[in-house]
Amino acid sequence: MATQPATPIKQGMEIKEPPQFQFKRVGDTLSGIFYSIEPATITDQKTGKLKETTRYIFLDDETRTQRTSCLETNDLKKKLWPGLLGFFLNVRYDNDDASFAEPGQNAMKVFKITTRSSHKEPGFENIGAF
């Protein structure tokens, strides 16, 4: 069973990189169908050097064509794994944990991740590993 895009793809349509969601404040939430885990190269804001990281891609639940991404954090790396691909997830920036931060380091962002269902979304049953 394939999911049809709500917005038709047109010939000559420009395909753009998904916008990046940033968790800036406690309570910020990113919701959608967890669609992809991919490598990304970013510029480190402190050093200006290129750095390898991971990007997580989510699809909008209504259109299933609008994509949003976020970058890996230590906490997200522990919680988001390929077995969750195809599930609708709510990723909420829950709090900061400075208990093990060294002087000059930022506190770790802690996330609460919940699923809407115990099953993958219709049309996404075969995505990811389980």
What is the CA-based Rg, rounded?
A: 16 Å
- Total beta-strand segments: 5
For the terminal residues, how far apart are their CA atoms? Answer: 18 Å
Strand order of the largest sheet: 3-2-1-4-5
- How many strands, which pairing sense, and closed or not: the largest β-sheet? 5 strands, antiparallel
Reading the helices and strands in chain order gives: EEEHEE
What's the overall geometry?
globular
**Share in β-strands:** 35-45%
The amount of helix comes to under 10%
Quaternary structure of the protein: single chain
Structural class by SSE content: mainly beta
Number of helices: 1
- Catalogue the unreliable spans: 1-5
Compute the average pLDDT: 89
Structural notes for this entry:
This protein is mainly beta and 130 residues long. The chain has a domain at 29-115. Helix content is 5%, strand content 37%. The chain has one helix and five strands. The protein has one helix at residues 74-79, and strands at 29-43, 50-59, 67-71, 88-97, 108-115. It has a five-stranded antiparallel β-sheet with strand order 3-2-1-4-5. The two termini are 18 Å apart. The model is unreliable at 1-5 (pLDDT under 50).
